[in-house]
Design goal:
Blueprint: E1 47-53, H1 72-79, E2 82-84, E3 87-88, H2 94-103, E4 123-124, H3 132-137, E5 142-146, E6 166-169, H4 176-179, E7 189-191, E8 194-197, H5 202-219, E9 225-230, H6 251-274, E10 280-286, H7 309-312, E11 316-319, E12 329-331, E13 335-336, H8 340-347, H9 364-367, H10 405-410, E14 412-415, E15 421-426, E16 429-432, E17 438-441, H11 455-475, E18 480-481, H12 495-499, E19 501-512, E20 515-524, E21 531-537, H13 551-559, E22 563-567, H14 579-593, H15 595-598, E23 600-610, H16 612-622, H17 627-630, E24 644-648, H18 657-665, H19 667-673, H20 681-687, H21 689-692, E25 700-705, H22 715-723, E26 728-733, H23 744-762
Parallel strand pairs: 1-9, 1-10, 2-12, 3-13, 5-6, 5-9, 21-22, 21-23, 23-24, 24-25, 25-26
Antiparallel strand pairs: 2-11, 4-18, 6-7, 7-8, 10-11, 14-15, 15-16, 16-17, 19-20, 20-22
Helix pairs in contact: 5-6, 14-16, 18-19
Length: 763
């Protein structure tokens, strides 16, 4: 996944720059890192859990004044942490609010400000945005999104393409307006790409999400983790388990709150049981409001979707006493959802890479009690304090003497559910802009019931709104837009996937006389870590194949966090075996020799191939060190061994009776190996991956079509691997022929399996 960029501000701090990257055919790769990465502190990085509740109103917890429900665990969290009285969601509606939280930006800035992303929407968070999950993932964190996503449902926008290595939950809402997209089957509950249950049962979700979060914490207790837990509750339709039905004095809504409270307690109990509570930060907040106050003491007015306080001011609590966060405090500082992005990064010791505009402020000094307010960015009081200074600041003469830069950065700009700027708050003042200017003093009038006349304040806040509108006009970035699939069902890679990649094409990796072999190399834009590499070997090598034929697979895998190289090799019409495997090994050695330039982890390399390429991938995996197969392709001082392989629809046993018969009748086999099996038994033996299998070989996953020849399932080959204790799997793509990668549905299925194996073995 890529580091967030703006078209107007695309420079990044780099520690090792070979040459400037650009998405053109002449692009040159470089590994670059934020300067801080080389100076990471020795102290353990904190775990972070962000509990994001759907549609919970400002007063709807005991610690915020609710009397109809009992929330002892969340109240205890507030007693041991910081409770915010003036905290604002990024928007008064689901999708924009989530976009603001995960990008640290006003939803308008990232093009995600209008209503919600339905299941039939073709838009979402742009792949070029650096989400907080990507930021943490790139700095060594295990990341999980568990719950409701609602930020785009096409491939580029899904959680695992936005920085989350693990996903469990509903990609969509259960709102009746959205359920219609799913027909009679209903909304599926997903774990990564697998449907766990369909339709999802709302009454089970709160517990299931918590179970999944606890399991993820247990699995990653020895390393830092970031868990984003966006609950489906308390959105309608409500779901309450039998255990909690009728337990509150507020109907189903109150019952659902009490079930949430219980499960928040389970998280805290698990942190204590795992011995990691002192190194964990927990945030609790709502994505937008629900309803106004219910008693005369609860003055707030307005519902979800509105820019009255009840629509966008929500409960928020930060807990982390073991890491120096304040305990037992109530803060009236104006804090916004976007502020968590730079603040949590600072608490984790992560410096946000230079580049695009981010609206969030680093509130770490406030969280730690070093300041009662958020310090001005220019004071540089914390690691990411200066991030807001990326925002445009060039006020016209009318506003320059009236508005200070730090005042402007502290202002909060309210946007309605349709994305229009509706109001601005600075300190205790709130100015509505439409249909007329209306000023309220929220410190004395949270109900927004009494207009205030103060021409100086009105002018100041109106000026802020004008500056903000101009800033957004000039510096807003687009939402991601997915390309519709081809109507004929043939495989096509959406343009947005290619846009997320740096590409260096036609890189020479070996020469044999007049014959030059080249590869196309892809890597995710602005992922500064060293990445595993995958050699992609095209089919048709016994006839007229070429590396272009494997570009779809190479680009798809690169977008999932690998460096990929789609390679040429000499075809059988050019040179007989073993020239082809010589070329594959030369490609591996070339990438290993140039690992620093291309950002490759030389100890984590895999191979994938289809048909003839599947055979070569299997042979590459099993023949490391076999001198007859190494060849003279250069970089002889480097190993050609790989650490994972996926042969697809290839032959692995050239000595079988089936291949004996074929070699007699098919001229192409005789051209490839110089004759039939009877005529060239030693050449067939040398070309057979099964012959070379030994206990040093890497994990292998065979993929083939159900309608392909059964020999492509590699039964004997897999059996031999298992006898040696080598992990081996088989996937047979239903209804698929030999050339299954040509159809989108089969291609997508295969790439999911490929991603699974390479992620498990190489990441």
């Amino acid at each position: 996944m890529s580091i967030n960029r703006s078209a107007n501000a695309a420079t990044c701090t780099m520690s090792s720059l070979i040459s400037r990257m650009a998405l053109v055919t002449s692009v040159v790769f470089a590994i670059a890192r934020p300067a801080l990465a080389a100076e990471a502190p020795a102290a353990p990085k904190p775990n972070i859990i962000f509990i994001f509740v759907d549609d919970q109103g400002y007063y709807d917890l005991g610690c915020y004044g609710a009397t109809e429900v009992k929330t002892p665990r969340i109240d205890a969290m507030a007693d041991e942490g910081i409770r915010f009285t003036d905290y604002y969601a990024a928007a008064p509606i689901c999708s924009p609010s989530r976009a603001g939280l995960l990008t640290g930006c006003y939803p308008r800035r990232v093009g995600n400000h209008i209503w919600v992303h339905r299941a039939d929407s073709s838009s979402g968070i742009h792949p070029d945005e650096l989400t907080i999950a990507e930021l943490f993932q790139q700095n060594g964190y295990a990341t999980a999104c568990i719950g409701k996503w609602h930020l785009g449902f096409r491939e580029p926008f899904l959680p695992r393409n936005q920085g989350f290595e693990h996903y469990f939950g509903l990609l969509h809402n259960l709102d009746p307006v959205e359920v219609v997209c799913f027909g009679d089957q209903g909304v599926p509950l997903m774990r990564n790409d697998t449907i766990v249950k369909r339709p999802a049962d709302p009454a089970e979700l709160t517990k299931l999400y918590t179970d999944e979060a606890i399991a993820f914490m247990e699995k990653n207790a020895e390393k830092p983790f970031f868990v984003y837990l966006p609950h489906t509750m308390l959105h309608n339709p409500l779901g309450v388990s039998e255990e909690f039905k009728g337990t509150s004095q507020w109907g189903e809504y109150g019952d659902a709150i009490q079930e949430l409270d219980h499960n928040v307690g389970r998280l805290f109990d698990s942190l204590k049981r795992l011995g990691i509570s002192d190194n964990t930060i927990v945030i609790y907040a709502s994505d937008n409001g629900r309803g106004p106050g219910r008693t005369p003491e609860q003055k707030i007015r307005g519902h979800k979707l509105s820019t009255y306080e009840g629509g966008i001011r929500v409960p928020a609590i930060a807990w982390g006493p073991g890491l120096g966060l304040q305990t037992g405090e109530t803060s009236a500082a104006v804090v916004r959802a976007m502020d968590w992005y730079p603040s949590l990064a600072t608490l984790a010791g992560i410096e946000i890479p230079a580049g695009p505009v981010i609206d969030g402020r680093d509130i770490t000094p406030l969280l730690k009690g070093e300041s009662a307010v958020v310090p001005a960015p220019g004071l540089n009081k914390s690691l990411n304090a200066k991030v807001p200074l990326r925002r445009r600041w060039d006020p016209p003469g009318e506003w320059e003497p009236l508005i200070k830069r730090w005042e402007y950065n502290d202002a909060f700009f309210y946007h309605g559910s349709q994305g229009a700027l509706a109001a601005v708050r600075w300190k205790n003042w709130k100015l509505y802009l439409n249909p007329s200017l209306e000023l309220y003093d929220l410190s004395n009038d949270p109900a927004e019931s009494t207009l205030v006349r103060n021409s100086d304040v009105i002018r100041k806040l109106r000026g802020m709104a004008i500056l903000f509108q101009e800033e957004i006009r000039l510096d807003a970035r687009p939402a991601g837009q997915a390309t519709p699939r081809r109507t004929d069902g043939k495989t096509a890679i959406p343009a947005e996937i290619a846009d997320r990649l740096h590409s260096k094409l036609d890189v020479t990796f070996a020469r044999y006389g007049d014959r030059t072999l080249k590869m196309d190399i892809y890597r995710p834009k602005d992922n500064w870590r060293t990445l595993p590499a995958i050699v992609c070997i095209h089919g048709g090598g016994w006839r007229q194949g070429q590396k272009m034929n494997f570009r779809n697979a190479a680009q798809t895998l690169a977008a999932r966090g690998f460096v990929t190289a789609s390679i040429d090799y000499r075809l059988s019409g050019e040179a007989p075996f073993p020239a082809h495997i010589h070329d594959c090994k030369a490609a591996v050695r070339f990438l290993r020799a140039n690992a620093k330039e291309y950002g490759i982890d030389p100890d984590k390399m895999g191979a994938i191939g289809h048909s003839a390429g599947g055979h070569l991938a299997a042979l590459l995996a099993t023949s490391a060190g076999v001198q007859e197969l190494e060849g003279r392709g250069g970089n002889a001082e480097f190993s050609s061994a790989i650490q994972a392989v996926i042969p697809m629809a290839g032959q692995t046993d050239f000595l079988s009776e089936r291949n004996r018969e074929i070699s007699r009748d098919r001229e192409i086999w005789q051209q490839f190996l110089g004759g039939s099996q009877e005529e060239k038994p030693e050449m067939y033996r040398l070309a057979s991956p099964l012959v070379h299998v030994d206990k040093t070989d890497p994990p292998c996953w065979i993929i083939t079509g159900a309608k392909d020849d059964p020999s492509t399932r590699a039964d004997r080959f897999r059996q031999r691997l298992k006898e040696l204790g080598i992990k081996s799997e088989l996937t047979v793509v239903e209804d698929a022929p030999h050339a299954f990668l040509t159809r989108q549905v089969w291609f997508d299925e295969a790439m999911e399996i490929v991603d699974q194996l390479f992620t498990k073995t190489l990441k």
